[in-house]
Amino acid sequence: MPPTNLLASKTAIITGGTTGIGRAITLAFLAQGCSVAVNHLGLPSDAPHLSSLLSEADALLATATPDRQIGRLAHLPGDVRDPATGEKLVKFCLEEFKVGRLDICVSNAGVCEFADFLSITPDLFANTVETNLTGAFHVVQAAARQMALHNSPPGGGSVIGISSISALVGGGRQGHYTPTKAGVLSLMQSAAVALGGYGIRCNALLPGTVETQLNEEDLRGAEKRGYMEGRIPLGRVGEPKDVAGPAVFLACEELSGYVTGAQVLVDGGLFVNLQ
Predict the structure, then answer these.
(1) Distance separating alpha carbons of residues 165 and 169, to the nearest angstrom
(2) What is the value of pTM for the model shown?
(3) DSSP 164-203
(4) Does the annotation mark 258 as catalytic?
(5) Which of 8, 25, 256, 257 has the most crowded CB, counting CB atoms within 10 A?
(6) What is the spatial distance between Cα 193 and Cα 195, in angstroms, rounded to a whole number?
(7) Is 152 among the catalytic positions?
(8) CA–CA distance from 74 to each of 12, 25, 139 (Å)?
(9) Would you give the distance in Å from CA 68 to the centre of its chain?
(10) Radius of gyration over alpha carbons of the chain, in Å?
(11) In order along the chain (275 residues), what is the average pLDDT of each group of 10 residues?
């Protein structure tokens, strides 16, 4: 049986936690005993995703036993482009779960709209940067301030930035996107240096081709999917749950307590097979 209670009694915030990779990480953390406050935009289109996530969280909670702790789920709408959103999410998490510590921050919220380089508009470029990079900075800074200065006792914690294989390679229709993911990777490296003295570990996860709502249209065609699968040594595109396990590893002090400033590729071997 897989291990349990790896994150027992921990608390976490996860941005963009109702869909895709963020959702999978949320459920994995809950299953390991971590209470999670997720952020979402609060749009009408978010409602079905949020409703099903709450149902899954309730079903998980029903499996709790004296030997297996399941975390609680809470949610708060907010746009990560607003600097106040991170601060509000941290405060909400502590109040909702009645704790004095934030243990884990996963900066996951992001957008990815494919566009030809010569057609990228200033608005598309700005929105991508503000969501993927500026938003990540504000959320990580808010979490780090709590961990370093206000946790009881102060110090400790794990910050995980969801970057991408696109941080390491170019994309012909991603000229506005790849720089933001390289920025998230660099942000985690700099944060690891800046926050190491507080015992805060900062690492980046770099998913490869993972099928989510952001790229499902691009992967819908059999020809494109076959092309991508042919380039991946493990022979398939990833699923959001493939990223959740590495996130648990980086969140767990007992497993990764000496890991900081790292970049963890979760890509089925795609990067080492790029030619």
Answers:
(1) 7
(2) 0.96
(3) -GGGTS--TT-TTTHHHHHHHHHHHHHHHHHHGGGTEEEE
(4) no
(5) 25
(6) 6
(7) no
(8) 10, 14, 17
(9) 24
(10) 18
(11) 91 97 98 98 95 98 97 98 98 98 98 95 98 98 98 97 96 95 98 98 97 70 78 94 98 98 97 84
Phi, psi of 169 (to 5 degrees): -135, 160
**DSSP-derived secondary structure letter, 106:** E
- Give pLDDT, residue 274: 78
Q: Which residue has the tokens 């396990």?
A: 245
Residue among 107, 158, 164, 181 flagged as catalytic: 181
The three-state secondary structure class of 159 is strand
CA angle in degrees (0–180, nearest 5) for 85-252-62 = 80
| Spatial distance between the Cα atoms of 193 and 260, rounded to a whole number of angstroms | 9
Catalytic-role residue among 35, 107, 158, 163: 163
Query: Measured over all CA atoms, what is the biggest interatomic distance in the chain, rounded to whole angstroms?
Result: 59
Give CA–CA dist 103/252, Å, rounded: 10
Q: Show the tokens assigned to 5.
A: 């209670």
Task: Determine which one of 35, 158, 164, 177 is catalytic.
Answer: 177
Which one, of 5, 256, 15, 241, lies nearest residue 131 by Cα? 15
Please provide the DSSP assignment of 88-149 as one string: HHHHHHHHHHT-S---EEEE---------GGG--HHHHHHHHIIIIIHHHHHHHHHHHIIII
What does the pLDDT look like over 98-154, one tens digit per residue?
999 999 999 999 999 999 999 999 999 999 999 999 999 999 999 999 999 999 999
Active site residue 241: no
C-alpha angle 77-79-84 in degrees, rounded to nearest 5: 95
* Residue 163 amino acid letter: S
pLDDT at 246: 98
